[in-house]
Write a structure and sequence with these properties.
Layout lengths: L3 E6 L5 H11 L5 E8 L15 E3 L8 H14 L4 E4 L8 H6 L4 E5 L11 H7 L4 E8 L9 E8 L6 H24 L3 E4 L2 E4 L2 E2 L4 E3 L5 E2 L1
Helix pairs in contact: 1-5, 4-5
The protein binds glycinamide ribonucleotide.
The site of glycinamide ribonucleotide has 15 residues, from α1, β5 and α5.
Length: 218
């Protein structure tokens, strides 16, 4: 299989990027990271790739959000990615940027979407008394944490869970789910058609789930 080109957008510590790089190094993901793009020039995530692959700019240094996203989009495009992955990119993406990469932009989110969009998802799951919690990978659309969900990983909420304990367990699942979805994506089997995720050309009506061997199952 040829090496697919992956661009990563991130704002923070970059543990999901680390998981992708780990899967590539272990030979489980036939891909290469061709750029890491951040709205936070001092984000730890940037340190995980060589300087030539780093791009960052503070949105506040641009005249408008549109100007920032034009520059970001141009930088992404210059890296010629097959897939663009938001892995802890903590800004809402504007319409123009999302349309530019429509159908090949993915996001990982720490909840079982459509439950608990936005921030503080672990506290929200506890406050709602959810019996299950987890993470989702979905196609990006201009609306926050929306877009067709491709796959989810679930865990049972324990009576003594705190937002911190849930966050740690969900993050460990994210590190398994994201490489598994990328594997599907780079194999050419995943596509979005008319707002629905398709695998091998067949529309999926419920998200795939991750089994204990890190395989995605219907
Ligand atoms: C992850 O938990 C990811 O799901 C979340 O940010 C964290 C980034 O961690 N993303 C969102 O909340 C997006 N709505 P990382 O920098 O260690 O990968």
């Amino acid at each position: 299989m040829s090496q697919a080109r992956i661009a990563v957008l991130a704002s923070g510590r970059g543990s999901n990027l680390r998981a992708l790089i780990g899967a590539i190094e272990a030979g489980r993901l036939p891909a290469q990271v061709v750029g890491v793009f951040s709205d936070k020039p001092d984000a730890a995530v940037l340190q995980q790739v060589p300087p030539a692959l780093r791009w960052s700019a503070k949105p506040a240094n641009f005249d408008s959000r549109e100007a920032y996203e034009q520059a970001l989009g141009d930088a992404i495009e210059a890296a010629r990615p097959d897939w663009i992955v938001c892995a802890g990119y903590m800004r809402i993406l504007g319409d123009a940027l999302v349309q530019r990469f429509a159908g090949r932009m993915l996001n990982i989110h720490p909840s079982l979407l459509p439950r608990h969009r936005g921030l503080r998802t672990h506290a929200a799951a506890l406050a709602a008394g959810d019996a299950e919690h987890g993470c989702s990978v979905h196609f990006v659309i201009p609306e926050l944490d929306a877009g067709t969900v491709i796959a989810q990983a679930r865990l049972a909420v324990a009576p003594d869970d705190t937002p911190e304990s849930l966050a740690a367990r969900v993050l460990a699942m994210e590190h398994r789910l994201l490489p598994a979805v990328l594997q599907l994506a780079v194999s050419g089997r995943l596509a979005e058609r008319d707002g629905t995720a398709c695998v091998d050309g067949q529309p999926m009506f419920t998200p795939l789930t991750l089994d204990s061997h890190d395989r995605l199952m219907p």
